[in-house]
Structure prediction request, 248 residues.
Amino acid sequence: MPIIPATRDDGIHVVTVDYPPVNALPVAAWHDLAEAITEAGRDERTHVVVLRAEGRGFNAGVDIKEMQHTSGFHALLGANRGCYQAFKAVYECPVPVVAAVQGFCLGGGVGLVGNADTIIASDDAYFGVPEVDRGALGAATHLARLVPPHLMRTLYYTSRTITAEQLLTHGSVLEVVPRADLDEAALRVAAEIAAKDPRVIRAAKEALNGIDPVDVNHSYRFEQGFTFELNLAGVADEHRDRFVEQGR
Prediction:
């Protein structure tokens, strides 16, 4: 099972993504992830959620090979809806979500952590949205929550990545630690939150979402419309075919 939920006695609920080789999630896994986070938040015993991953990197986005091996727009629509639901589940989880990020965090990975409440990263972690290189758009909404506007635009247009150490200076990453210490660091912050009155924390999460200047759900849905246009025009297929041919 690639999405592994685990309830602890201390009020911390851990959701682990384990989808080798690079945690590039197929359509079903995005929906499974959304369901796992939603269910964790519904459980009154949950005070905080830790979202983590096994393997070389946190998340490599959608499974492009699945998309290219599926006829029509079925996989594209599924991935669009799956990512939307997973990002939304993180953002609307009634309790804070702490993301523990190692290695690469790309595309959909940025969508997840951009909607999280706290990010702890390993010292080898880096973040990026390579959608332009894939003939698609998306997750600028979430990248904009990690860096200032002009930097976001440059990263988006160029498909450059940014390190966890650099994000630390922008305040979007709370702490950068050696990879071996990542889980411990994330659980330490989660435990600090879990020790608070959960009634207050749940109210605080709802209040903070309510004062956000951007509606992330509608903003991301708007972006997805342009991705679909690029697909209808055949542009996205050209780029995804090239990606698959190169064996990445």
